[in-house]
Amino acid sequence: MNFPFYVARRYLFSKKSTHAINLISAISVLGVAVATMAMVVTLSVFNGFHDLVASFFTSFDPQLKVTPVKGKTVPSDDPVLAQIKALPQVDVAMECVEDQALAILDDRQAMVMVKGVDDNFSQLTHFSEILYPDNGAQIDLHAANLEFGIPGMRLAQGLLKGASDWRGYLHIYAPEREGQLDMSNPDAAFVEDSLLSTGNVFNVNQSKYDAHYIVTSIAFARNLFGQQGMLSSLELRLKPGSDFDGVKRQMKKLAGDKFRVEDRYEQQADTYKIMNIEKYLAYVFLTFILIVASFNIIGSLSMLIIDKKDNVTTLRNLGASNKQVSKIFLLEGRMIAVGGAILGILLGLLLCWLQRRFGLVALGGSSGSFVVDAYPVSVHLSDILLVFFTVVAVGWLAVWYPVRHLSKRLLQ
Fold first, then answer.
1. Which has the closest alpha carbon to 67: 49, 80, 48?
2. CA torsion angle for 34, 35, 40, 42 (degrees, to 10)?
3. Is the dihedral of CA 161, 59, 209, 214 positive or negative?
4. What average pLDDT score do residues 306-334 get?
5. Which of 184, 222, 261, 290 sits CB 3.0–4.6 Å from 35 for a disulfide?
6. Measured distance CA(225)–CA(397) in Å, rounded
7. CB-CB neighbours of 273 under 10 Å
8. Whole-angstrom Cα distance, residue 158 to residue 151?
9. How many CA atoms within 13 Å lie on the side-chain side of 53?
10. Is residue 223 scored above 90 in pLDDT?
């Protein structure tokens, strides 16, 4: 039997001569538990928002995107791209031409990103699921010599004054790629083309897309930007059950230093990087709160050492060494930290479950004000382990020096 552990456990649960010591010990455990619970809940809420944002981009971004390292476009028949498309794990491959242009409707104008896509765009992503009002509809972006466009919802609200079905032609202008600017005829410096409405807008719930993008056919985009036979990206979806990481590594090997191969997280690296920074800043601040809560353990142990001074004298007479006596109080402080960590994690998990199940904490004052009505939560095992080891480490470090110091001074 571990003698110091046995005595420390007895001291932790036994009644003390002064009831205040029991109360302070309980407060110590509760303080650590509350700080731990706050860490679990806060990190889970950040995970919830992370997963929510990821679900938005999933509707618009492809699983994998291949783009040139140098320049905006490359020939669509590039042999490297042909090898990537020919991989057996590739289910859908779509060529895309994307660039900036000026859109004008009546007396209103806006800078837009024109995204030209193939007919299999709806097979590549869940784009049809974010259309309004025809959710789930299959939309044709060209018919005979007519070209159609689908704007983002916020772009439609500004440029089109909220109309998903604008009347007449939406004129799109892009700079002429070749030749010199003739100041006497500036209109000749631009290529003009026009789009008709499909009667729909899309809503990704991300300003980057909803306020700037128009989705149209790749033929329209190539003609507008003078990119015949070219593409700005090759967008891919893999077959179900494929080894995603393995296929990605294989594509990167084929791409070499000529192309980038990016998954959805890498395509939105800036957004996710900011969210991760916010998450770990919250973790650091909560760790400082935990350190403050750990001072309760020091107070509890100080009073316990004074209360058990006579007991320690008896233990020494029975042969206990100074090291064993110090270890008794070290173990008690660490048991308080571990007990508070376990209790806090359990309470945090319970609150996360209640939030997921019942939406206890709402977003905004009324239903429908936000994309979700309540704070989203997503519990990750890695975060739970991080919180547990953080609490234990802070608790153990918090009691080490004070216990050794007090043991030497008060137990002479």
1. 80
2. 110
3. negative
4. 71
5. 290
6. 63
7. 11
8. 11
9. 22
10. yes
SS3 103: strand
What secondary structure does DSSP assign to 262-307, as a single string? Answer: EEHHHHTHHHHHHHHHHHHHHHHHHHHHHHHHHHHHHHHHHHHHHH
CA distance 114 to 97: 8
DSSP 8-class letter at 44: H
Please answer whether residues 88 and 155 qualify as being in contact, where contact means their C-beta atoms are separated by less than 8 angstroms.
no
Average pLDDT over residues 132-136: 83
Strand partners, 65: 235, 262
pLDDT tens for each residue of 67-105: 999 999 999 999 999 999 999 999 999 999 999 999 998
Distance, in Å, from the CA atom of 65 to the CA atom of 61, rounded to the nearest integer, reads 8
Q: Determine the Cα–Cα distance for residues 223 and 134; give it in Å rounded to an integer.
A: 28
The strand pairing partners of 215, in sequence order, are 115, 150
Q: What does the block give as tokens for 71?
A: 């320049």
pLDDT value at position 56?
80
The one-letter amino acid code at 218 reads I
Structure token pair of residue 8:
């420390």
pLDDT value of residue 10: 65
Q: How many CB atoms lie within 10 A of CB 197?
A: 20
Q: Measured between alpha carbons, how far is 161 from 159 in angstroms, rounded to an integer?
A: 6
Rounded CA-CA distance 224/193 in Å is 7
Instruction: Copy the structure tokens of residue 255.
Output: 């791409």
Q: How far apart are CA 35 and CA 386, in angstroms?
A: 14
**pLDDT per position as a tens digit, 262-309:** 999 999 988 889 999 999 999 999 999 998 888 887 777 777 776 666
Tens-digit pLDDT profile for residues 10-20: 666 665 555 55
Q: Is the pTM of the predicted complex or chain greater than 0.85? A: no
User: What does the alpha-carbon distance between residue 73 and residue 78 come to, in Å, rounded to a whole number?
Assistant: 11
- How far apart CA 123 and CA 203 sit, in angstroms, is 18
Burial of 150 (0-12, 13-18, 19+ CB in 10 A): buried
Count of residues for the chain? 412
Q: How far is CA 4 from CA 8, 10, 176, in A?
A: 6, 10, 83
Q: Count CB-CB contacts under 10 A for residue 77.
A: 10
Structure tokens at 269: 């690296």
